[in-house]
């Protein structure tokens, strides 16, 4: 048998040792691990002619058999002066912007510092000591500066926010303790006297004057009218009764000088057309020291003609004040008809209480009185 026919002998592991030997001694040594890393391919070098060394390359060298494209030509940028017209190209495409040029442009043109200083000289600025006013005039399109100017000015948003916060705190306190309302708003230099000791008349007048003036002391004294009927009919009878109440208060309380305003409230019946009756309240404010006398009439509450006829029928024929009204009040008749207290018949009839009616009337009266005080102070 030739040498090619001989098969290589496979080495056999050694025979296991006896049971008395070590187990590790029977393990064969590890063989060499196979290497799968191939050899790095050799890239053939590109020979460059000796004559081309030091000279510009006319064309890019091919890499991998593919030519490299030539670089795109770069168009030179022309620096244009401020006064030079832009160059015109015959074949250049004209750019049409999607957004008009007027959109997004500043209100004022962008100018050089020399032009800005020349146009905005100190003589051209408005006569104002506030820097915010100057900025607002120079930049009329700035909404922030306008907001700041209104915020810091007298009566601006900051003052309104402070007043709103104070009003919210006062409202919270008075909600938790209604008796604190009179305590918070009482005081100041204004004293108002009401010619009545009834809370339904004093309370709305107090709230109205304290709302208009901020703080005011409002007190009430009992006063009666002896020159008119118990239920006045017509504006003239109500005005006479109110004047009588004011005179009574001043005569009884000598400490009230003519500089203290006195307010009287008198309810009366008014016939707008035939058998169309309304119950209204006349409010009169008198301050002789300034020659002020104000009159204000409340909103009317409709009264059935049958109730007025009942009051007329209940009045005696020889009633001394029959010319000015009736001896029975319309409130007692309406309360008996509606089966409610005589102070709640307006609310039961129309849903608006007498206090609400008097409150609106007193606020109008207080506002007119405040305006007259301002006029008198300016004249003085």
TrEMBL record:
Claim: Cell wall biogenesis/degradation is one of the keywords in the record: no
Keyword set, alphabetical order: Golgi apparatus
Pfam families for the chain: NTPase_I-T (PF01931)
Cell compartment(s), UniProt: Golgi apparatus
Gene Ontology CC terms: Golgi apparatus
Main location, first listed in the record: Golgi
Gene Ontology MF terms in the entry: protein kinase A regulatory subunit binding
PANTHER family with a match to the protein in the record: PROTEIN PRRC1 (PTHR23276:SF2)
Name of this protein: Non-canonical purine NTP phosphatase/PRRC1 domain-containing protein
Organism annotation: Spodoptera littoralis
């Amino acid at each position: 048998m030739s040498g090619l026919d001989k098969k290589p002998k496979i080495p056999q592991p050694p025979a296991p040792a006896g049971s008395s030997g070590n187990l590790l001694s029977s393990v064969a040594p590890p063989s060499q691990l196979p290497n799968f890393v191939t050899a790095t391919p050799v890239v053939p070098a590109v020979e460059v002619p000796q004559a081309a060394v030091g000279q510009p390359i006319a064309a890019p060298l091919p890499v991998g058999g593919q030519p490299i494209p030539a670089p795109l030509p770069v168009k030179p940028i022309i620096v244009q002066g401020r006064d030079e017209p832009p160059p015109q190209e015959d074949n250049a495409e004209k750019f049409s912007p999607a957004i008009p040029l007027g959109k997004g442009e500043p209100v004022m043109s962008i100018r050089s510092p020399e032009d800005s200083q020349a146009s905005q000289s100190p003589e051209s600025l408005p006569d104002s000591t506030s820097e915010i006013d100057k900025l607002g005039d120079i930049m009329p399109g700035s909404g922030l500066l306008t907001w700041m100017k209104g915020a810091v000015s007298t009566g601006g948003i900051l003052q309104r926010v402070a007043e709103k916060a104070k009003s919210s705190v006062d409202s919270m306190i008075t909600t938790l303790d209604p008796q604190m309302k009179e305590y918070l708003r009482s005081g100041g230099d204004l004293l108002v006297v009401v010619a009545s000791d009834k809370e339904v008349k004093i309370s709305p007048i107090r709230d109205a004057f304290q709302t208009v003036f901020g703080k005011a002391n409002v007190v009430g004294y009992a006063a009666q009218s002896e020159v008119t009927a118990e239920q006045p009919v017509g504006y003239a009878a109500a005005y006479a009764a109110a004047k009588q109440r004011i005179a009574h208060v001043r005569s009884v309380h000598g400490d009230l000088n003519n500089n203290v305003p006195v307010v009287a409230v008198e309810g009366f019946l008014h016939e707008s057309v035939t058998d169309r009756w309304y119950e209204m309240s006349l409010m009169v404010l008198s301050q002789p020291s300034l020659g002020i006398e104000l009159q204000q009439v409340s909103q009317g509450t409709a009264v059935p003609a049958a109730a007025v006829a009942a009051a007329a029928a209940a009045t005696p024929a020889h009633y001394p004040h029959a010319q000015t009204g009736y001896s029975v009040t319309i409130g007692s008749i309406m309360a008996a008809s509606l089966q409610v207290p005589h102070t709640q018949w307006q609310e039961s009839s129309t849903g608006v209480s007498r206090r609400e009616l008097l409150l609106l009337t007193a606020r109008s009266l207080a506002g007119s009185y405040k305006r007259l005080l301002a006029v008198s102070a300016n004249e003085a």
